[in-house]
Amino acid sequence: MAFAAHLAVLTALIWAATTALYFAGGFAIRAYARRHPERKIQVRADGEARARAEIMESLRSIAITSFCMALAICLSLFGWTLWSPMEGWLGVAIGAAILIVGYDLYYYWAHRLLHTKRFVRFHRWHHQSRAPTVWSTDSQSPVETLMIQSWMIWAVVFLPIPPLALVAHRLYDHFNGQLGHCGYEFFADRSTRAPSPLVCTTYHDQHHELYSWNYGNFTSIWDRLHGTLHPDYDRLVKAREATAPPAPAE
Ligand SMILES: [Zn+2]
Ligand SMILES: [Zn+2]
Predict the structure, then answer these.
(1) Where are the chain's structural domains?
(2) In angstroms, what is the span from residue 129 Cα to ligand 2's centroid?
(3) Ligand 2 centroid, distance to 205 Cα (angstroms)
């Protein structure tokens, strides 16, 4: 089968799988969160009012993400990369770690770029959600999605990343995004505030509510280094961790 046919079939399959995950994860997280109204971050906001518009935009943006991932896999399968991919399960694990750590840095700067005068028009749609929900994570303009998700293409071309590592990275990115936008805080504890580099849902929720802080994705490392972490983030996490009732073991 020619390259273009591989690319088309794979794009369609990845789109179907990602869309299924988007709805399954979205409904499951939302159902769980609604049983814990005390965990809501922006108490008075109703992010769900934009659900329909966000879902429609997400279906298009997931198609672009799927195309980027399919193109990266096809380039690897056809050997159109600078290096042969690392082999074995260890190669997959190392590849996934490189993708996740590298993407954290790539995302920080791509996101800073999206907040500049020249590029902000591509980022406005995502920021129309002042109070994000599970449907917000993929609700981005086509240009923004291409800028962010083309990371998979660059990584595969310039680094020895095996295709399965792309799958692991994408799954992590997907669920991290949906939980990070869900609007309810279930992860505030010592592991998500200084000195830990990890973050909880409050981190990206603050970005939507307050706009000019917290540009990172998986960690707060780059924000801390560049002075763009919201000054109240650590204090807020500590307060939420102290006041939140323990999550029921159900
Ligand atoms: Zn932003
Ligand atoms: Zn967001």
Answers:
(1) 3-243
(2) 8
(3) 7
